[in-house]
């Protein structure tokens, strides 16, 4: 039997192919690991984003529009709560959100009594209890306005992982740039999800009924 050797010119190509196959075998586990990590991260994001008790929300002590002390315990009880941060000098986002929440209350009918809503100011320097009372009187009476000292308002905002800062205006004074999420909280005051108001109120009411 005659054994034929490979041509010398073929050996470099064979060696290169061998190296490529070896590199591919080494790279495959890395690629699988990266994709597995990404998939796990996506699952955790989706799960924690809708799972009660994910670290959003926490202790606060504020004052309502009637001058009464209110803490995070006000979120606890049968039904659910909506929490929204804003300020009375807000030109559009805040009154729009409060109007949309008012429409959800109307769509809920009597079941709306099991929904609590808290409008927490990010501008406590201007938003006194009296000003809050006048402001929210244009919306559903079950919406509670909350203010406090700058330190108390900041603590509440941080508990909800929110953001707010003063923005100077050209003609003097200032406005506020702030988080505009509507937080849906369960009967134990735990975060459920960021509630979407940009849809027909009947549709929003149908979703929120699941937690009432």
Question: How is the topology of this model organized?
Answer:
Layout: H1 11-49, E1 61-64, E2 69-71, E3 80-86, H2 93-108, E4 115-121, H3 129-136, E5 143-147, H4 150-159, E6 164-168, E7 174-178, E8 182-185, E9 191-194, H5 201-208
Helix pairs in contact: 2-5
What features would you describe in this structure?
- With about 210 residues, this protein is of the alpha+beta class.
- It has two domains: about 10-50; about 60-210, Glutaredoxin, CATH 3.40.30.10.
- The protein is built from five helices and nine strands.
- It has helices at about 10-50, 95-110, 130-135, 150-160, 200-210, and strands spanning about 60-65, 70, 80-85, 115-120, 145, 165-170, 175-180, 180-185, 190-195.
- The strands form two sheets. A seven-stranded mixed sheet has the order 2-1-5-4-3-8-9.
- Helix 2 crosses helix 5 (about 200-210).
- The longest helix has about 40 residues, at about 10-50.
- The chain is globular.
- The protein starts with 10 loop residues before the first helix and ends with a helix.
CATH topology heading of the largest domain: Glutaredoxin
Average residue-wise pLDDT: 83
CATH class of the largest domain: Alpha Beta
What's the number of domains?
A: 2
Structural class: alpha+beta
CATH architecture of the largest domain: 3-Layer(aba) Sandwich
Q: Count the helices. How many?
A: 5
Strand segment tally: 9
Radius of gyration: 28 Å
The CATH homologous superfamily name of the largest domain equals: Glutaredoxin
What proportion of the residues form beta strands (DSSP E)?
A: 15-25%
Question: What would the principal axes of the Cα set say about the shape?
Answer: globular
What separation lies between the terminal Cα atoms? 87 Å
Regions with little confidence, pLDDT below 50 for 5+ residues: 1-50
Order of SSEs: HEEEHEHEHEEEEH
Specify the helix fraction band.
Answer: 25-40%
